[in-house]
Design goal:
Rossmann fold, two-stranded antiparallel sheet
Length: 253
């Protein structure tokens, strides 16, 4: 997760996630249609917690189908509190992965069989590392994998870079890529024309799945706490938690 780099105007009621009329028209898709039987699922998260924000509900559904799973965390998320003495980078580099383990446990992920790769790239500077990122991702992919990564036009520099690197790696290896918007849902409604609505599909979630996803998000204690001494608001803003209550997740196919 990254700081809410959204202008104040984007935090009002007219955000895409709660105002765009196109949302009601997005066709539903079943996880079976996204991931063929026996295929491996690969989730690529720019920062710890992005996998929960983007597809925590979908991961729950896929885990019940017993797909092999690989999680690639590109960074350790240690730059989430710049200038903070309470949450310095050296502390976050240890805490954030621990929070991810707890979040995955709360989602009900099979931790005994989930493979997890930590990329070790520098948080908040991924645009400069796009080529080595794509090489790293390709190294761990196999032909036939189904990959879920952040949308390459999400509006967050790290998310966009990971989306582009994932697309290159998938093309090279022969894996299938689906893109996941995160920050894009917090654009203003007038920016909705930039969303590729024709590619959007809706994965429906039941009440239990939504509750588990929210419970998992709250495992990121560091992201729920800002640093008042330097005027730093919580990284996991309330508006993000509100959006996570929606009974669906969006995938770009």
């Amino acid at each position: 997760m990254k700081p809410a780099s959204l202008s104040e105007s984007r935090r009002g009621p007219a955000q895409i996630w709660n105002s765009a009329p196109q949302l009601a028209q997005i066709p539903a898709i079943h996880p079976h249609s996204l991931v063929p039987a026996g295929a491996r699922v690969v989730i690529i998260a720019p920062h710890p917690g992005d996998e929960v924000l983007a597809c925590g509900g979908l991961l729950q559904r896929l885990s019940t189908l017993e797909h092999p799973m690989l999680l690639i965390s590109i960074t350790d998320g240690s730059a989430s509190h710049p200038g903070s003495n309470v949450w310095p980078a050296r502390r976050l580099s240890v805490v954030r992965p621990q929070e991810s383990v707890e979040a995955l446990r709360r989602l009900g992920m099979p931790l005994h069989s989930l493979k997890w790769i930590r990329g070790g790239f520098r948080d908040d500077a991924l645009a400069a590392s796009e080529h080595p990122m794509s090489q790293l991702i390709a190294r761990y992919l196999q032909p036939g994998d189904v990959v879920f990564s952040t949308w390459r036009n999400d509006g967050n520099a790290d998310h966009d870079a990971v989306g582009r690197a994932s697309a290159k790696a998938c093309s090279l290896v022969g894996a299938r890529l689906y893109e996941l918007p995160i920050w894009a849902w917090h654009w203003t409604a007038r920016e909705g024309s930039m969303i590729p609505w024709q590619r959007a599909r809706k994965v429906r979630l039941d009440t239990w799945s939504v509750a588990r996803k929210l419970h998992a998000a709250h495992a990121y204690a560091s992201q729920l706490a800002g640093d008042p001494e330097i005027g730093l608001a919580p990284m996991l803003a309330q508006v993000l938690l509100e959006r996570m209550r929606e009974p669906y997740e969006i995938v770009f196919v």
